Structures are given as structure tokens and as C-alpha cells.
Amino acid sequence: MNFDLQDLSGTFSTFDIVVSLALSFVLSAIIGYVYRLTHKNVSYSQSYVQTLVMVGMVITLIMLVVGSNIARAFALVGALSVVRFRNAIKETRDVGFIFLVMAIGMTTGTRFYVLAVAATVAICLVLVLMSRFDMFKLDVQRQVVKVQVPPESGYTALVEDVLIDYTKEFELVSTESVRSGALTELYYTAQLKPGRKPAELISALSGVNTGQRVTVLTGYDQTDI
Q1: How does 148-186 read in b/e, with b if 16+ C-beta sit within 10 Å?
Q2: What pLDDT, in 10s, does the model give residues 7-45?
Q3: What is the pTM of this model?
Q4: pLDDT for 203-223, tens place per residue?
Q5: What superkingdom does the record give (predicted)?
Q6: The domain 142-222 is classified under which CATH number: 3.30.70.260, 3.90.550.10, 3.40.50.2300, 1.10.10.10?
Q7: Strands 143-149 and 214-218, how do they pair?
Q8: Would you say 80 and 61 are in contact if contact means Cβ atoms under 8 Å apart?
């Protein structure tokens, strides 16, 4: 039996491999630093940034393997389609960074080196500028107000009278029966009037709902009584 082992590494040079992987690492690392620089929430993950760098280099390797061979491309698509990811993405911008490093990996893997560098510089510059100048920020802060009241309809009117006094606008989102029908929980979204504080709203609502539970959520802060 004759085994014919053929090494296809000669389809690209050692220089191509070194340059592609090294450039992919550098550019993906730059993207990772930009992600860290522009990240504003508490959900920052070092492992996620390291994964960005790894994904960029892996995509580069895949593109080197595929080259211009359509059969290999379809084989890799079939192999990768069985992979399932269970981790939830915490922020929508995280998905954008994943696509960015994938695109950079593809350009370096196909040896479009100038395009990869230019795209990384341009996109990272845009990301830094958007973060630096807080672009597209909407300065409308809304609260979620949850109020438990007795099931009689008159209490809803009392609650809304308080909301009219303390908020610029409000909207009833849902009404839910709790404690086996003994109470009704009202969910509102509201925007407090200037100078009004959540604690003041809670105090006023507590005066009309027979001392039942009142919760006001503002962003990541929660005031409860």
C-alpha cells in the first residue's frame, strides 16, 4: 500500500506566514487597546480582549489555508458551522469589535497588508473620537417606577396624580397581579421633573398606596422602599 503524503505549505512562503500572523497580532492588539480605552461600563473583561486578538490571528490562519481554493473554503465553512457559542454578548458594541478583528484577520490572511493597516487606523480613530466627544449621546434619563397598590381601581388614579406632580411625562408599561390577587403591581416609565429626586417620588407614592412596596430604578441605581 502506497501512502502519498503531500505538504501544501509551499503554496505560501514562510515570509507570508510570519508577516501575516505578526501583522494580525499587532493590529488586533491595537483594536484591543482601543476597546479598553473606549469601554465605559463595568462589564470589561480581560479574557474578551485576549479573545479578540486570538480571533484575529485565527482568521488570518484560516484565510492562509483557504487561499483561492474554493473546495477548502466550503470544507472550512462546513467544519466551522458545527461550532456553537453559548456566551451571551453583554453589549452590542462588543459584536462590532468581533467583526472588526475578523475583517482584519481576513485582510491580513489574504495579504492585503496596506488595506489592513489603513482600515485599523481609520476605524480605531473613529472609535476613539466617538468615545472622546461622547457622540450620539441622548441626555434623556428615564426611570422605571414599580408601585404595589390594593386592587381597587381608585389607587391607580392616586398613583398617577403623584406621577403628574413629580414627572414631566410617564407611561404605564404593564399591570400585574401579585400575592395571589391581593395586590396589583404597576410598572411605569417616567422622566422626573428638574429638581425632583427619586427619594421624593418614593415618599409621595408611599403616602397613597397604603404603605406597599415602591421601587424606582434609574440606570444601574435602584431606590427601594
Answers
A1: bbeeeeebbeebbebbeebbeebeeeeeeeeeeeebbbb
A2: 555 567 888 889 999 999 999 999 999 999 999 877 788
A3: 0.64
A4: 999 888 888 889 888 754 445
A5: Bacteria
A6: 3.30.70.260
A7: antiparallel
A8: no
